[in-house]
């Protein structure tokens, strides 16, 4: 990188380039970043993989076992867990790559792991958007929305397939342009966009728009309309539901905003701003931190979307009682199906009867 940079400069920077060639003053050296990533990334990726795989795996097990009682919200939750699992499966490969600084599993796996990574990334975001819109339609437009009136299994499947198609479409450029390349320090799996094209800049904009701006805007709009309706309902559970919605938006913002800020800075770097070796090194180091923070969000999805819901907790306890009767045999589910219907269930988009009565008025 230093050699290329110096070859592009004029004679005014000859002294600077001479210093660059001196091993005692290697500003653009990535050795420190690489040494840090060899320890940091494998450790953090492993923790995210283990925690996320356990949580999302439990969600899938519960929803598959009791799929006959599933509704659209459950199907969205199932696809969200599948998206997170696809994403998590790619992490051990990236952890191994970071640990040894060389890609050892070939060109096909480079494309395959990149596909898992990108499909899981966009799938998780799109299904969070779908779940948010579903809740908005059911609660805010209970009797007027066509979306609310046709929440059938067939409609849910069609919408899920559409979301997967969108995820694939958004992921295709990265999947296509990923390749195994033999560099000075060994084989790498990376995205190489064609020279002289705007694909790289487009990928940064796509990540910012689809990864933060659209989902955050949808969540803020939908929940800002849902919360006043819930507050107007006479229920002891409404404050808990409102807190959970606020937590959902806040957590998404806190976990994904740093990542998207660094992506935007890389976009500016691509345009020629902050175009120094030191800035590039700083961006690489920052990306390792914010990526790990953003990736750990998939560990929280099962907690936010599933385990806080009464319906899901009942089903989960039921499975534990079947699998481990000695340990969980004494656990009891909530009193009755009737009381469950009257509770604000955050993991279920169905609106309790008092909300519907309020909407009629």
UniProtKB/TrEMBL annotation:
Principal location: membrane
Topological type in the membrane: Multi-pass membrane protein
TM region positions: 44-64, 76-95, 115-137, 157-177, 209-233, 245-268, 288-308
SUPFAM superfamilies xref list: Family A G protein-coupled receptor-like
Residue ranges of every copy of the G-protein coupled receptors family 1 profile domain listed in the record: 55-305
Gene3D superfamilies: Rhodopsin 7-helix transmembrane proteins
GO biological process: calcium-mediated signaling; cell chemotaxis; immune response; positive regulation of cytosolic calcium ion concentration
PROSITE patterns: G_PROTEIN_RECEP_F1_1, G_PROTEIN_RECEP_F1_2
Highest taxon in the source lineage: Eukaryota
InterPro entries membership: CCR1-9-like, Chemokine_rcpt, GPCR_Rhodpsn, GPCR_Rhodpsn_7TM
Molecular function terms from GO: C-C chemokine binding; C-C chemokine receptor activity
One Pfam family it belongs to: 7tm_1
GO CC annotation terms, alphabetical: external side of plasma membrane
Record key words, sorted: Cell membrane, G-protein coupled receptor, Membrane, Receptor, Transducer, Transmembrane, Transmembrane helix
Assigned protein family: Belongs to the G-protein coupled receptor 1 family.
Name of this chain's protein: G-protein coupled receptors family 1 profile domain-containing protein
Species for this entry: Pangasianodon hypophthalmus (Striped catfish)
């Amino acid at each position: 990188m230093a050699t290329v940079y110096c070859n592009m400069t004029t004679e005014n920077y000859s002294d600077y380039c001479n210093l660059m060639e001196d091993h005692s003053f290697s500003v653009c050296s990535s050795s420190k970043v690489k040494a840090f990533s060899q320890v940091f990334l494998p450790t953090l990726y492993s923790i995210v993989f283990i925690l996320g795989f356990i949580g999302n795996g439990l969600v899938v097990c519960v929803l598959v076992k009791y799929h006959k009682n599933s509704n659209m919200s459950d199907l969205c939750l199932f696809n969200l867990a599948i998206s997170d699992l696809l994403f998590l499966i790619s992490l051990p490969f990236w952890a191994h790559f970071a640990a040894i600084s060389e890609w050892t599993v070939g060109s096909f796996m480079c494309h395959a792991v990149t596909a898992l990574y990108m499909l899981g990334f966009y799938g998780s975001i799109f299904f969070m958007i779908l779940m948010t819109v579903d809740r908005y339609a059911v609660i805010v437009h209970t009797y007027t929305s066509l979306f609310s009136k046709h929440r059938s299994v067939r409609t849910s499947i069609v919408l899920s397939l559409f979301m997967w198609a969108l995820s694939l479409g958004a992921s295709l450029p990265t999947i296509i342009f990923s390749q195994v390349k033999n560099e000075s320090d060994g084989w790498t799996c990376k995205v190489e966009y064609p020279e002289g094209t705007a694909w790289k800049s487009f990928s940064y904009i796509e990540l910012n728009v689809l990864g933060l701006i659209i989902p955050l805007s949808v969540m803020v709009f939908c929940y800002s309309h849902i919360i006043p309706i819930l507050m107007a309902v006479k229920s002891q559970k409404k404050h808990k539901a409102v807190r959970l919605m606020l937590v959902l938006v806040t957590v998404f913002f806190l976990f994904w905003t740093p990542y998207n800020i660094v992506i935007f800075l890389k976009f500016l770097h691509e345009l020629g701003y902050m175009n120094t070796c030191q800035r590039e090194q700083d961006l690489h180091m920052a990306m390792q931190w914010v990526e790990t923070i953003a990736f750990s969000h998939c560990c929280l999805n099962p907690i936010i979307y599933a385990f806080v819901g009464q319906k899901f907790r009942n089903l989960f306890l039921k499975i534990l009682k079947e699998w481990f009767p000695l340990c969980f045999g004494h656990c009891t589910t909530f009193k009755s199906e009737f009381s469950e219907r009257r509770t604000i269930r955050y993991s279920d988009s169905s609106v309790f009867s008092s909300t519907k009565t309020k909407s009629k008025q």
